[in-house]
Structure formats: structure tokens, C-alpha cells
């Protein structure tokens, strides 16, 4: 059975569209979030908490809480498994593909 792929761009982190998140359960087995910064306290944590009692797999991508000064983005992304290739690999591995 083929699963749907959906990209959702949350405009605000303060709330959750619980109806949308519930609807994803019927035709998705994984939700992956990509933070624009630090993982701790981010949108992905809220999504993971929403699905914690369900069979939905959740992957959160972002940076660990740290002070980043004068960094090379490419190096930082690779070190934290945030390149497109690494994220795709993690998603496929989690799905068992």
C-alpha cells in the first residue's frame, strides 16, 4: 500500500491544527519535522508529544541546544545529520525502505 507524502508549512508555532494532525494518521506512518533552529522546545517536540500514544513515527531534525559562533553551515548541517541526503536516508530507514 502506498503512503501519502505531505508537506505542511506551519505559519505559527504557538498552536497546533489537531484536526490536520489527526487526519494524517489514516494515510501516513511517519511525520518528520525540520526545525529552522534548535530542537529543544521547538515545533517538532510538540508534534512528537501529540503522537506519543499513537503508532505514528516521528522524526525531528534540527540543531542541538548549543552556542554556534562563526560556523560553516555545510559542516554544521553534515555534523548534525541535516543535509537533504541524510534526512532522506533517515526517513527511508525509519520506514524500513
Protein model, in words:
This protein is an alpha+beta fold and 97 residues long. It has a single domain (18-95), classed as Rossmann fold (3-Layer(aba) Sandwich). Helices cover 36% and strands 16% of the residues. It contains 4 helices and 2 strands, in the order H-E-H-E-H-H. The chain has a two-stranded parallel ribbon with strand order 1-2. Strand 1, helix 2 and strand 2 (57-63) form a beta-alpha-beta unit. The longest helix has 12 residues, at 84-95. 3% of the residues are buried. The mean pLDDT is 88.
Chart the SSEs and their pairings.
Elements: H1 18-24, E1 30-38, H2 43-51, E2 57-63, H3 73-79, H4 84-95
The string of secondary-structure elements, in order, is: HEHEHH
For the secondary structure, the number of strands is 2
Our count of helices gives 4
Q: What CATH architecture would you give?
A: 3-Layer(aba) Sandwich
Estimate what percentage of residues fall within beta strands.
Answer: 15-25%
Radius of gyration: 14 Å
**Gap between N and C termini, in Å?**
13 Å
* Major sheet size, sense and barrel closure: 2 strands, parallel
Instruction: Indicate the multimeric state.
Output: single chain
Descriptive tags:
4 helices; single chain; 97 residues; Rossmann fold; two-stranded parallel ribbon; alpha+beta
Quick structural overview:
By secondary structure, this protein is α+β, with helices and mostly antiparallel strands.
Amino acid at each position: 500500500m502506498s503512503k501519502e507524502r505531505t508537506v505542511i508549512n506551519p505559519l505559527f508555532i504557538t498552536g497546533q491544527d489537531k484536526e490536520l494532525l489527526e487526519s494524517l494518521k489514516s494515510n501516513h506512518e511517519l511525520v518528520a519535522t525540520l526545525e529552522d533552529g534548535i530542537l529543544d522546545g521547538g515545533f517538532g517536540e510538540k508534534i512528537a508529544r501529540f503522537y506519543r500514544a499513537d503508532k505514528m513515527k516521528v522524526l525531528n531534525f534540527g540543531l542541538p541546544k548549543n552556542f554556534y559562533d562563526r560556523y560553516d553551515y555545510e559542516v554544521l548541517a553534515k555534523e548534525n545529520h541535516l543535509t537533504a541526503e541524510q534526512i532522506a536516508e533517515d526517513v527511508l530507514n525509519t520506514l524500513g525502505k
